[in-house]
Write a structure and sequence with these properties.
506 residues; alpha/beta; Rossmann fold; 6-stranded mixed beta sheet; 4-stranded parallel beta sheet; 45% helix; 13% strand
Length: 506
């Protein structure tokens, strides 16, 4: 895809990648096969099209604006303006907690996020709210003197067609800092991951240094969220320094992304747009390799970094050392976890990585839920096809599902697979599993399972969780699920997608 940094509006994932948010349960290999039919057209899979399964209602999800909050809102010396009704600001409490925890585990000064809401009201929907936006930018400058100011749009501003670009341009001239509009209305895209792209598009347009004087041959951009610093111990073995972006970075960190030797990430979903944009627009190579999960993925990832940064010998030494170090512990974990059945329920590419780690530990994975599916990524490189990599290297997953965090479907998915535990990152689904007697491994630190040590981390945590399964069994015995008998006895979690059944129930 050709990136267009002349416009402030990013194309949605549906337009660019053919992203879907629903796919009835089938084999992971079937979804991988059908994904060769993307938004770019047929790619020779026998004419079979990737079909999206859409339900009649949505119980809950995230939105693009929230993802802008957790990207632009987490830059330490910047301010985010939410040009939105105050209700859109309720996420600030959650993201403030995550931000503070992230700073703490990175040994950075702990502070609150700096997000200002313009409080659009009914009268503003009639007469416009650009005056409020200007005043909020003035307030942001006077209170914080930031190095950059981001503006997140909302459904409300999209409906009335606010000219955010003109205000941003005016205030940028006034304060001599980047003032960056990001169009992330909730209705713009059916999946929240477009919000990552909106924030990263604005950073590429207005913050990344356009003409760097020189490259830093030992600097690697690591696109991440709030996780612990696991990449410094890994990359330092290759003589490389880490430039963490976007969350908890400074504006200076973002500016120097164009000077780096390469870009990597822990998750293709998060990094797709920014990594591809840095390569296309600034000549910073994206490390095109499987994600760093499990032995096979981490080996390939380390070797590709070594190749891109001309450190092949150091990469091989590190791989050999780590293989020797982890082998005895992994064998021990395999014996303890033998016969266990796990289930991953997270974002798309992240779930693929977790499946690899579970299978490295000898855990059976009969099912997995991803909240959306990208048939391709922005660079369209087959080395980054994380779903195909898992199938090819670790075998198929017979009950693979795509569902946008719908609890009513999750019940049926778990009932059919009957896992011993689930791995999850996003809120809302773990309590349901607990009520079904299934304990959850909550990965608040998204880097927890990365790399060679990540295999051991996850294995040990699963053992800890399984030791406390009695608590979940007690919950199951005493808690009633909020569904009708008709639904509790359904075998197909996607049955409501069939219109005749829905009409009959009504």
């Amino acid at each position: 895809m050709k990136f267009n940094l002349n416009t402030s509006v990013v194309k949605t994932r549906e337009e660019r990648l053919g992203t879907i948010i629903g796919w009835k349960t089938g084999k992971a290999s079937e979804l991988s096969r059908d994904s060769s039919y993307t938004c770019a057209g047929c790619r020779g899979n026998g004419g079979k099209r990737l079909c999206e399964t859409i339900g009649p209602f949505t119980q809950g999800s995230g939105c693009s604006e929230q993802m802008v909050e957790c990207q632009a809102g987490n830059i330490r010396d910047a301010v985010l303006i939410q040009h939105a009704p105050v209700g859109c600001g309720t996420g600030q409490a959650c993201y403030n907690s995550i931000y503070r925890n992230g700073l703490a585990i990175r040994n950075l000064p702990v502070e609150n996020i700096k997000i200002i809401n313009t409080n659009i009201k009914e009268t503003d929907m009639v007469f416009g709210a650009l005056g409020k936006l200007e005043q909020s930018i003035e307030d942001a400058w006077n209170r914080h003197h930031p190095k950059a100011i981001f503006i997140a749009t909302s459904c409300a501003t999209g409906i009335i067609g606010e000219d955010v670009d003109s205000v941003a341009s005016k205030m940028q001239k006034k304060f001599k800092i980047p003032v960056i509009p990001m169009y992330c209305e909730g209705f713009r895209s059916k999946h929240w991951s477009t919000g990552f792209d909106a924030a990263q598009h604005g950073i590429l347009r207005q913050i990344v240094r356009k003409n760097p004087k020189e490259k830093q041959e030992d600097l690697v951009n690591v696109i991440n969220l709030w996780g612990s610093d696991v990449f410094t111990p890994i990359l330092s073995k290759l003589g490389l320094r880490v430039n963490y972006v976007v969350d908890m970075a400074t504006v200076k960190d973002l500016e120097q992304m164009s000077e780096a030797a390469a870009t990597v990430s822990f998750c293709n979903t998060l990094s797709s747009y920014l990594a591809a944009g840095l390569e296309q627009q600034f000549g910073v190579p994206e490390v095109k390799a499987p994600q760093p999960y499990g032995i096979a993925g981490t080996d390939a990832w380390i070797r590709e970094i070594g190749k891109v940064t001309h450190r092949e010998e150091s990469a091989e030494i590190y791989i050999e050392e780590e293989h020797r170090r982890i082998a005895p512990k992994i064998e021990e974990l395999k014996k303890s976890l033998k016969g266990r059945k796990g289930y991953a329920a997270t974002g798309s590419a992240y779930s693929h990585g977790l499946i690899a780690v579970l299978k490295e530990l000898g855990i059976e994975v009969d099912g997995s839920l991803v909240f959306h599916h990208d048939p391709s990524y922005d660079d369209n490189d087959p080395k980054k096809d994380s779903l195909k990599f898992v199938v090819d290297n670790y075998g198929d997953v017979p009950n693979f599902s795509v569902s946008n965090r719908q609890q009513y479907q999750f019940y049926g998915l778990l009932k059919n697979v009957k896992p011993d535990f689930i791995i999850i990152r996003h809120g809302g689904l773990a309590p349901l599993a607990s009520k079904m007697g299934i304990p959850a491994v909550p990965l608040g630190d998204e880097h927890f399972a990365v790399g060679y040590q990540g295999i051991i981390n996850l294995g040990e945590t699963i053992l800890d969780i399984m030791a406390r399964k009695k608590f979940n069994e007690d919950l199951k015995a005493h808690v009633k699920l909020p569904y009708t008998k008709w639904w509790l006895h359904q075998k197909d979690p996607y049955i409501l997608q069939k219109q005749k059944i829905l009409q009959k129930q009504n």
